[in-house]
Amino acid sequence: MLDLSFPWPIGPIPIAMTVWASYGLYRAVVTRDGVTWESVVSVLGLVAFMAALTAQVVKPVINQALSLMIAQFLGTGACFLLVKLLWSVQKTKPEPSAPSLRRPDVKMLRGMGICLSFLIVLDGLFFLFPDAGKCAHFKGYMANKCAGKELFIGIHDLPVEIYFGVVLGVPAMAGLILGIWALFRTAGLPNADEPGTKKSTGG
């Protein structure tokens, strides 16, 4: 029999955010608005919930940090596919401009470094402190406060950790993958910030 007693493995707040995300994605498809900030955030929220729900149902026996990294990688792929779907139904697309490929500049490389560093820190914290924040570690007032938080967020276990790990980690992983793709796509081309790459207009 289904046990609906509180706290739930995935709390009311993530569930409510997923309902909002589902509506945002549905609206983007029906109205054919396609890729917007709202629809991209909706995709991220929906993918994070599906990853957490999968962790709750499957209950993987592998290491918690490894489960998170797999969820982030698969979640990033799912986000790319859903954004591609939104782009395919978008009614108004920007006019294609003349191709002017250049290798990524220093700012993009710095952004890739930030994304990679953030992923290492985030996943490293999950690896080093897998039980941090669990209510069993607290007593008295702090235990009651932790239990109250679990009523809204969910039990501090793998599904909730996967949810927030995907919400925070997928944007960083997506940025890193897009940067790597740009590097391969523009291999052998001049750098964007290299002097003399702009066409001279003088006679």
Task: Compile the SSE list and pairings.
Elements: H1 12-30, H2 37-58, H3 64-89, H4 106-128, H5 141-153, H6 158-185
Helix pairs in contact: 1-2, 2-3, 2-6, 3-4, 3-6, 4-6
**Helix/strand class:** mainly alpha
How many helices? The count is: 6
Biggest sheet character: none
β-sheet strand percentage: under 5%
Which descriptor suits the 3D outline? globular
Instruction: Report the uncertain regions.
Output: 197-203
Gyration radius, in Å: 21 Å
Helix percent band: 55-70%
Element pattern in H and E: HHHHHH
End-to-end gap: 82 Å
Mean pLDDT: 83
Number of beta-strand segments: 0
Describe the structure.
With 203 residues, the chain is mainly α. It has six helices and no strands. The N and C termini lie far apart (82 Å).
Question: Could you write a compact summary of the structure shown?
Answer:
By secondary structure, this protein is an all-alpha fold. The chain contains 6 helices and no strands. Helix 2 packs antiparallel against helix 3, helix 2 (37-58) packs across helix 6 and helix 4 runs antiparallel to helix 6 (158-185).
Main attributes?
203 residues, mainly alpha, 6 helices, disordered C terminus
